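sorry for the late reply, my laptop died twice this morning and i had to redo everyting from scratch. anyway the thing you sent over, i finally got around to it. pasting the sequence first so we're on the same page, its 170 residues, then the predicted structure underneath. double check i copied it right bc i was rushing
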Amino acid sequence: MIYYLLLPFFSIVLLALQTSLFDLLFLGKIGVEISLVLVVYAGFKLDMVKGGILSFVLGFFLDCITSVVPGLFVFIYLFIFFISKIASFRIYAEGILFIMGFTFLCALAEGAIIVVVYKTLYGINIFHDMSSIFLPQALVVGIISPALFSLFNRLEVFINAGETKSSDRL
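ok and here's the structure:
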């Protein structure tokens, strides 16, 4: 229950950190999508309800903060969550190289979806941004994803520690 109460607060803090602090650190050149790594982590480690709600909330708040197209990040994050969940059923998703590669591909897929939506809805061709913006962003996200997975795993253990029930009843 505490998970659902803390989720909106931590989501806003994470997205504010992602959109402001990292933008200042990298001078606006590369956006570090920690929220995308969290969605991939949710697909690998959380159950359908918790991970789906987490992906929806992160996508919704990111839409509120940065998106020009309403619902774009909700769609992208839920899509990536379901792809990650399907992959976690089929593949052993604990290897560092697999995590890096899969997160890299998810970040590229996010960029490709954004390019297609902008071209379809607005007629704006931002395909040239794939190599100058989305590819470096995907590389950075892929490289840091194993460290973030470790951090998210520790936070999950910390949050779930209060929810464990003792087998000893009085």
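The chain is about 80% helix and 0% strand.
thats about all i looked at so far, will dig more tmrw
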